[in-house]
């Protein structure tokens, strides 16, 4: 295997590419996790604490939103990415990936959390 890598791409360039791939994955992953936590923790907390007439309907509406297949969301997002000029960049992945991560489970079951707390 080592001989194949040396003859095809050269050993140095393979390791350089591999390190670049690792760096890209780490950067994108950390940014997506940070964005997701910054957005979903306050949203989950506020939705868990909400009470009133529309609380249950809001929780059900948020839950039903996540039943939409991500493929349908990709079409408008690709338009947004192209309008922002982010094609073929890491920033396009950082922008798009958080839209596929659901809000924490406390947000989708806000009525369950409130009823558990009342007991």
Which structural class best describes the helix and strand composition?
mainly alpha
For the termini, the CA-CA separation is: 63 Å
Largest sheet properties? none
Q: What is the mean predicted local confidence, pLDDT? A: 77
Roughly what fraction of the amino acids lie in strands?
Answer: under 5%
SSE string, helix = H, strand = E? HHHHHHH
Q: How many E strands? A: 0
Q: Total number of helical segments?
A: 7
- Poorly predicted runs: 104-111
Radius of gyration: 21 Å
Broad shape: elongated
Provide the helix percentage: over 70%
Task: Outline the structure in words.
- There is one protein chain.
- With about 120 residues, the chain is mainly α.
- Helix content is about 75%, strand content about 0%.
- About 5% of the residues are buried.
- Helix 2 packs parallel to helix 5.
- The chain has helices spanning about 1-10, 10-50, 55-65, 70-85, 90-95, 105-110, 110-119.
- The protein has a domain at about 30-110.
- The termini are far apart.
How do you describe this structure in short?
This protein is 76% helix and 0% strand. The chain contains 7 helices and no strands. The radius of gyration is 21 Å and the shape is elongated.
């Amino acid at each position: 295997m080592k001989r194949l890598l040396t003859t095809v791409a050269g050993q140095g360039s393979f390791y350089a590419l591999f390190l670049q791939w690792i760096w890209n994955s780490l950067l994108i992953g950390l940014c997506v996790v940070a964005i997701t936590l910054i957005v979903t923790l306050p949203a989950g907390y506020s939705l868990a604490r909400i009470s009133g007439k529309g609380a249950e309907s809001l929780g059900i509406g948020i839950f039903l939103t996540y039943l939409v297949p991500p493929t349908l969301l990709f079409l408008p997002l690709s338009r947004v990415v192209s309008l922002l000029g982010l094609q073929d960049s890491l920033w396009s992945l950082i922008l798009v990936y958080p839209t596929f991560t659901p809000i924490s489970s406390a947000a989708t079951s806000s009525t369950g959390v409130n009823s558990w707390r009342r007991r």
